[in-house]
Amino acid sequence: xxxxxxxxxxxxxxxxxxxxxxxxxxxxxxxxxxxxxxxxxxxxxxxxxxxxxxxxxxxxxxxxxxxxxxxxxxxxxxxxxxxxxxxxxxxxxxxxxxxxxxxxxxxxxxxxxxx
Length: 115
Ligand code: 5GP
Ligand code: ZN
Known about the structure:
Helix content is 21%, strand content 22%. The mean pLDDT is 97. It is an alpha+beta fold. It has a single domain (8-114), classed as HIT family, subunit A, CATH 3.30.428.10. The site of guanosine-5'-monophosphate (5GP) has 13 residues, from strand 2. Zinc ion is lined by residues 4, 7, 9-10, 49, 100.
């Protein structure tokens, strides 16, 4: 399924739920996390509905590379110049709350709220 009508991030991608967007192209959307742990905290998501890394295969390799390589560019743009963290939570034991693959990018001056 490339789109899930019940998925909150699919709704953000469609513009049905507002978000503070940082970046958008044909494949990816980046937007600020609604409840940030760090001064800089945004999410990079694929526009297609992929639940988690459990669901990726060889066809997604370019997309995953694009997500990771966008992270430092946007981190810099948002002022995280002294380091940043990338996290992907997968499944229940991985602490994933939203079932649409997303890369957390966190940075900025410490202390952070979490992590
Ligand atoms: P997870 O625990 O699934 O890795 O992270 C989900 C993240 O999505 C959380 O950090 C949460 O704050 C963020 N989030 C959940 N709902 C929304 C929303 O409607 N808008 C935005 N911008 N972020 C959201
Ligand atoms: Zn989705």
